[in-house]
Design a protein that fits this description.
The chain is of the alpha/beta class and 218 residues long. Helices cover 39% and strands 18% of the residues. It starts with a helix and ends with a helix. The protein binds pyridoxal-5'-phosphate (PLP). The site of pyridoxal-5'-phosphate (PLP) has 13 residues, from strand 8 and helix 9.
Length: 218
Amino acid sequence: MRQVSENLHQIKHRILAACQKVGRKPDEVKLVAVSKGQSPEAIREAYDAGQRIFGENYAQELQKKAEELKDLDIEWHFIGHLQRNKVKAIAPFVASVGALDSLKTAETLHQLLPKSIPALIHINIGAEATKSGISAAEVPDFLRALTIFSNLHTVGLMCLPPYDPDQEKSRPFFARLRKLGTHLGLSELSMGMSHDFEVAIEEGATIVRIGTAIFGDR
Ligand SMILES: *Cc1c(COP(=O)(O)O)cnc(C)c1O
């Protein structure tokens, strides 16, 4: 079980190296440890190694873990697609919503959140028919519509490029997200997972979401 803290240590080292490669400061990049499908014990090990931000993408699972681990001051990020009928389960625990793509869900979040939290908009960056997220063309209207929900403050964009084990294939999508963020005046960019976070950092990621490279297979 020492493996988790060792992996975490290595990931931080790789984040540092990727930042140095392009002249960025390592404190510009936040690490979300994606703990979906992992045990509370594994989360505790990462916590003991200093990790505080954890990402989940199933509402019931987040609810269960947040209750089970309430003795720890974990910052829970909901990183997946969120359905309106699941908001109630996570509203008391969630510190950030990382993949907002529905105004109905946003409205319910606004109603049920105990306080204002940051939100990122999920952009369907590869324009894939089978994936959720909103299109780049729709973002300006979506962003404007969100402003009435004061319990959500939109801080940035998130994307999940079409999967390819070769991380260079993700680069153009990351670059596109960065351009869109700059254009919209949104500074946070949540992009990069276990297989492509270094390229994401080179392209300007401020949040990387890493699961299997820290915890092993799910
Ligand atoms: C599972 C998941 C991740 C982490 O993926 P790994 O390949 O395990 O690093 C990141 N982002 C989202 C939205 C996920 O669902």
